[in-house]
Amino acid sequence: MATKTTKYHWRAHTVLIAAVVVMIYPLVWLVGASFKPENQIFSTLDPIPWHFTIENYLGGWTATGTSFTVYLANSATIAVCVVIGNVVSCSLAAYAFARLDFAFRRLWFGLMLGTLMLPFQATMIPQYTIFYKLNWINTFLPLVVPQLLAFDSFFIFLMVQFIRGIPRQLDEAAAIDGAGHARIFFSVIFPLLRPALLTTAVLTFIWTFNDFLRQLVYLSDKSRYTVPLGLNSFIDRASGSSYGGMLAMSVVTLVPTVVVFLVCQKRLVDGVANTGIKG
Predict the structure, then answer these.
(1) pLDDT at 7
(2) C-alpha span between 180 and 95 (Å, rounded)
(3) More confident residue, 78 or 37
Protein backbone atom coordinates (compact mmCIF):
# COMPACT_ATOMS: atom_id res chain seq x y z
CA MET A 1 0.00 0.00 0.00
CA ALA A 2 2.81 2.37 0.90
CA THR A 3 4.56 1.54 -2.37
CA LYS A 4 1.44 2.40 -4.38
CA THR A 5 1.05 5.68 -2.48
CA THR A 6 4.68 6.56 -3.10
CA LYS A 7 4.33 5.84 -6.82
CA TYR A 8 1.19 7.98 -6.95
CA HIS A 9 2.93 10.91 -5.27
CA TRP A 10 5.96 10.52 -7.54
CA ARG A 11 3.78 10.59 -10.66
CA ALA A 12 1.74 13.52 -9.35
CA HIS A 13 4.86 15.53 -8.61
CA THR A 14 6.29 14.70 -12.02
CA VAL A 15 3.16 15.95 -13.76
CA LEU A 16 3.10 19.12 -11.65
CA ILE A 17 6.77 19.84 -12.28
CA ALA A 18 6.26 19.33 -16.02
CA ALA A 19 3.28 21.71 -15.96
CA VAL A 20 5.31 24.34 -14.10
CA VAL A 21 8.13 24.07 -16.64
CA VAL A 22 5.70 24.47 -19.53
CA MET A 23 4.09 27.55 -17.94
CA ILE A 24 7.30 29.25 -16.82
CA TYR A 25 9.47 28.50 -19.86
CA PRO A 26 8.02 31.32 -22.07
CA LEU A 27 8.75 33.88 -19.34
CA VAL A 28 12.27 32.52 -18.76
CA TRP A 29 12.89 32.52 -22.51
CA LEU A 30 11.64 36.13 -22.78
CA VAL A 31 14.02 37.35 -20.09
CA GLY A 32 16.94 35.37 -21.49
CA ALA A 33 16.29 36.45 -25.08
CA SER A 34 16.25 40.11 -24.07
CA PHE A 35 19.94 39.78 -23.17
CA LYS A 36 20.92 37.98 -26.38
CA PRO A 37 22.41 39.61 -29.49
CA GLU A 38 19.80 40.27 -32.17
CA ASN A 39 21.00 37.48 -34.48
CA GLN A 40 20.87 34.83 -31.73
CA ILE A 41 17.37 35.38 -30.36
CA PHE A 42 15.59 32.83 -32.55
CA SER A 43 18.57 30.66 -33.38
CA THR A 44 17.95 28.30 -30.44
CA LEU A 45 15.35 27.40 -27.83
CA ASP A 46 17.96 27.70 -25.11
CA PRO A 47 16.87 30.62 -22.87
CA ILE A 48 20.38 31.16 -21.47
CA PRO A 49 22.11 34.22 -23.05
CA TRP A 50 25.61 32.80 -23.58
CA HIS A 51 26.72 36.05 -25.26
CA PHE A 52 25.29 38.45 -22.68
CA THR A 53 24.50 42.02 -23.82
CA ILE A 54 22.36 44.92 -22.64
CA GLU A 55 22.25 46.63 -26.05
CA ASN A 56 18.61 45.61 -26.46
CA TYR A 57 17.68 47.63 -23.37
CA LEU A 58 19.82 50.63 -24.28
CA GLY A 59 18.54 50.78 -27.85
CA GLY A 60 14.96 49.77 -27.12
CA TRP A 61 14.44 52.48 -24.50
CA THR A 62 14.23 55.17 -27.22
CA ALA A 63 13.59 53.02 -30.30
CA THR A 64 10.07 54.43 -30.87
CA GLY A 65 11.27 58.03 -30.90
CA THR A 66 9.85 58.60 -27.40
CA SER A 67 11.59 57.56 -24.20
CA PHE A 68 10.05 54.52 -22.57
CA THR A 69 10.15 56.52 -19.33
CA VAL A 70 7.25 58.57 -20.71
CA TYR A 71 5.18 55.44 -21.29
CA LEU A 72 5.94 54.13 -17.80
CA ALA A 73 5.06 57.48 -16.21
CA ASN A 74 1.76 57.69 -18.12
CA SER A 75 0.79 54.12 -17.20
CA ALA A 76 1.68 54.71 -13.55
CA THR A 77 -0.31 57.96 -13.45
CA ILE A 78 -3.42 56.38 -14.91
CA ALA A 79 -3.11 53.24 -12.77
CA VAL A 80 -2.70 55.16 -9.51
CA CYS A 81 -5.65 57.45 -10.28
CA VAL A 82 -7.84 54.49 -11.22
CA VAL A 83 -6.82 52.60 -8.06
CA ILE A 84 -7.79 55.55 -5.87
CA GLY A 85 -11.05 56.01 -7.75
CA ASN A 86 -12.02 52.35 -7.54
CA VAL A 87 -11.13 51.99 -3.86
CA VAL A 88 -13.13 55.06 -2.79
CA SER A 89 -16.13 54.95 -5.12
CA CYS A 90 -16.68 51.18 -5.14
CA SER A 91 -16.47 50.97 -1.35
CA LEU A 92 -19.08 53.73 -1.00
CA ALA A 93 -21.38 52.04 -3.51
CA ALA A 94 -20.89 48.68 -1.81
CA TYR A 95 -21.80 50.17 1.58
CA ALA A 96 -25.00 51.57 0.10
CA PHE A 97 -26.04 48.21 -1.36
CA ALA A 98 -25.05 46.24 1.74
CA ARG A 99 -26.33 48.49 4.52
CA LEU A 100 -28.77 51.14 3.29
CA ASP A 101 -32.45 50.61 2.58
CA PHE A 102 -33.65 52.51 -0.48
CA ALA A 103 -36.27 52.04 -3.16
CA PHE A 104 -35.67 49.19 -5.63
CA ARG A 105 -32.35 48.29 -4.01
CA ARG A 106 -32.51 44.69 -5.21
CA LEU A 107 -33.42 45.81 -8.71
CA TRP A 108 -30.52 48.24 -8.92
CA PHE A 109 -28.17 45.65 -7.50
CA GLY A 110 -29.33 43.13 -10.11
CA LEU A 111 -28.86 45.66 -12.91
CA MET A 112 -25.40 46.46 -11.58
CA LEU A 113 -24.47 42.77 -11.65
CA GLY A 114 -25.90 42.52 -15.16
CA THR A 115 -23.31 44.99 -16.41
CA LEU A 116 -20.65 42.38 -15.60
CA MET A 117 -21.79 40.51 -18.71
CA LEU A 118 -21.26 43.52 -20.98
CA PRO A 119 -17.84 43.52 -22.66
CA PHE A 120 -16.13 46.83 -23.37
CA GLN A 121 -16.76 46.34 -27.08
CA ALA A 122 -20.53 46.53 -26.48
CA THR A 123 -20.34 49.98 -24.89
CA MET A 124 -17.28 51.32 -26.69
CA ILE A 125 -19.09 53.40 -29.32
CA PRO A 126 -21.61 55.07 -26.96
CA GLN A 127 -18.85 55.87 -24.48
CA TYR A 128 -16.59 57.22 -27.19
CA THR A 129 -19.42 59.46 -28.46
CA ILE A 130 -19.98 60.88 -24.97
CA PHE A 131 -16.30 61.54 -24.34
CA TYR A 132 -15.87 63.02 -27.82
CA LYS A 133 -18.63 65.55 -27.15
CA LEU A 134 -16.98 66.38 -23.83
CA ASN A 135 -13.71 66.96 -25.73
CA TRP A 136 -11.94 64.36 -23.61
CA ILE A 137 -10.43 62.32 -26.45
CA ASN A 138 -6.63 62.07 -26.33
CA THR A 139 -6.61 62.80 -22.61
CA PHE A 140 -6.47 60.59 -19.53
CA LEU A 141 -9.98 61.64 -18.44
CA PRO A 142 -11.94 58.85 -20.21
CA LEU A 143 -9.67 56.32 -18.51
CA VAL A 144 -9.88 57.84 -15.03
CA VAL A 145 -13.18 59.70 -14.49
CA PRO A 146 -15.51 56.65 -14.86
CA GLN A 147 -13.61 54.91 -12.07
CA LEU A 148 -14.45 57.83 -9.77
CA LEU A 149 -18.13 56.99 -10.28
CA ALA A 150 -18.12 53.34 -9.18
CA PHE A 151 -17.78 52.13 -12.76
CA ASP A 152 -16.44 48.65 -12.01
CA SER A 153 -19.26 46.36 -10.89
CA PHE A 154 -16.95 43.47 -10.07
CA PHE A 155 -15.29 45.32 -7.23
CA ILE A 156 -18.61 46.63 -5.92
CA PHE A 157 -19.88 43.07 -5.71
CA LEU A 158 -16.63 41.97 -4.07
CA MET A 159 -16.98 44.58 -1.33
CA VAL A 160 -20.71 44.00 -0.86
CA GLN A 161 -19.97 40.36 -0.07
CA PHE A 162 -17.31 41.40 2.43
CA ILE A 163 -19.48 44.02 4.15
CA ARG A 164 -22.30 41.51 4.54
CA GLY A 165 -19.92 39.45 6.64
CA ILE A 166 -19.32 42.34 9.06
CA PRO A 167 -21.70 42.09 12.07
CA ARG A 168 -24.45 44.68 12.00
CA GLN A 169 -24.06 45.08 15.76
CA LEU A 170 -21.04 47.28 15.05
CA ASP A 171 -23.19 49.63 12.97
CA GLU A 172 -25.92 49.66 15.60
CA ALA A 173 -23.46 50.41 18.40
CA ALA A 174 -22.07 53.34 16.43
CA ALA A 175 -25.59 54.57 15.64
CA ILE A 176 -26.49 54.48 19.35
CA ASP A 177 -23.49 56.74 19.97
CA GLY A 178 -24.97 59.21 17.49
CA ALA A 179 -22.96 58.30 14.38
CA GLY A 180 -24.54 58.83 10.99
CA HIS A 181 -23.99 56.75 7.89
CA ALA A 182 -20.89 58.73 6.87
CA ARG A 183 -19.21 58.26 10.24
CA ILE A 184 -20.25 54.60 10.43
CA PHE A 185 -18.70 53.98 7.03
CA PHE A 186 -15.41 55.80 7.58
CA SER A 187 -14.94 54.89 11.25
CA VAL A 188 -16.33 51.34 11.37
CA ILE A 189 -16.75 49.73 7.95
CA PHE A 190 -13.85 51.23 5.99
CA PRO A 191 -11.09 50.08 8.40
CA LEU A 192 -12.52 46.54 8.41
CA LEU A 193 -12.61 46.54 4.60
CA ARG A 194 -8.82 46.47 4.38
CA PRO A 195 -8.53 42.96 2.80
CA ALA A 196 -11.13 43.78 0.16
CA LEU A 197 -9.62 47.21 -0.46
CA LEU A 198 -6.18 45.70 -0.96
CA THR A 199 -7.58 43.11 -3.36
CA THR A 200 -9.32 45.87 -5.31
CA ALA A 201 -6.19 48.02 -5.40
CA VAL A 202 -3.87 45.24 -6.59
CA LEU A 203 -6.19 43.85 -9.27
CA THR A 204 -7.09 47.34 -10.47
CA PHE A 205 -3.44 48.29 -10.79
CA ILE A 206 -2.52 45.15 -12.72
CA TRP A 207 -5.52 45.30 -15.05
CA THR A 208 -5.15 49.02 -15.72
CA PHE A 209 -1.38 48.90 -16.22
CA ASN A 210 -1.80 46.10 -18.78
CA ASP A 211 -4.93 47.45 -20.49
CA PHE A 212 -4.53 47.92 -24.23
CA LEU A 213 -7.85 48.30 -26.05
CA ARG A 214 -9.37 51.06 -23.92
CA GLN A 215 -6.17 53.10 -24.04
CA LEU A 216 -5.82 52.50 -27.77
CA VAL A 217 -9.31 53.90 -28.36
CA TYR A 218 -8.85 57.13 -26.42
CA LEU A 219 -5.16 58.02 -26.75
CA SER A 220 -3.57 59.11 -30.03
CA ASP A 221 -0.73 61.45 -29.04
CA LYS A 222 2.55 59.62 -28.47
CA SER A 223 3.38 61.83 -25.52
CA ARG A 224 0.31 60.34 -23.78
CA TYR A 225 0.94 56.74 -24.78
CA THR A 226 1.00 54.13 -22.04
CA VAL A 227 3.25 51.08 -21.83
CA PRO A 228 1.01 48.75 -23.92
CA LEU A 229 0.65 51.41 -26.63
CA GLY A 230 4.38 52.08 -26.47
CA LEU A 231 5.10 48.41 -27.14
CA ASN A 232 2.61 48.44 -29.99
CA SER A 233 4.20 51.47 -31.62
CA PHE A 234 7.60 49.89 -31.06
CA ILE A 235 6.52 46.88 -33.07
CA ASP A 236 5.19 49.12 -35.83
CA ARG A 237 8.46 51.03 -36.03
CA ALA A 238 10.48 47.85 -35.89
CA SER A 239 8.52 46.46 -38.86
CA GLY A 240 9.07 42.92 -37.61
CA SER A 241 12.88 43.09 -37.58
CA SER A 242 14.20 44.60 -34.32
CA TYR A 243 12.97 42.00 -31.87
CA GLY A 244 15.72 42.54 -29.33
CA GLY A 245 14.47 45.95 -28.19
CA MET A 246 10.88 44.78 -28.23
CA LEU A 247 11.64 41.83 -25.96
CA ALA A 248 13.72 44.02 -23.64
CA MET A 249 10.90 46.54 -23.24
CA SER A 250 8.47 43.67 -22.69
CA VAL A 251 10.57 42.59 -19.71
CA VAL A 252 10.57 46.16 -18.39
CA THR A 253 6.78 46.23 -18.74
CA LEU A 254 6.42 43.07 -16.66
CA VAL A 255 8.45 44.37 -13.72
CA PRO A 256 5.89 46.74 -12.06
CA THR A 257 2.99 44.29 -12.12
CA VAL A 258 5.14 41.35 -11.00
CA VAL A 259 6.58 43.37 -8.12
CA VAL A 260 3.13 44.54 -6.99
CA PHE A 261 1.76 41.00 -7.14
CA LEU A 262 4.68 39.43 -5.27
CA VAL A 263 4.63 42.07 -2.52
CA CYS A 264 0.86 41.79 -2.00
CA GLN A 265 0.40 38.11 -2.88
CA LYS A 266 -0.45 36.79 0.58
CA ARG A 267 -2.87 39.56 1.45
CA LEU A 268 -4.39 39.38 -2.02
CA VAL A 269 -5.21 35.69 -1.60
CA ASP A 270 -6.58 36.35 1.88
CA GLY A 271 -8.73 39.17 0.56
CA VAL A 272 -10.24 37.02 -2.21
CA ALA A 273 -10.85 34.15 0.23
CA ASN A 274 -12.63 36.46 2.67
CA THR A 275 -14.94 38.11 0.16
CA GLY A 276 -16.41 36.03 -2.62
CA ILE A 277 -17.66 33.09 -0.50
CA LYS A 278 -20.02 34.92 1.85
CA GLY A 279 -23.71 34.85 1.16
Answers:
(1) 65
(2) 13
(3) 78
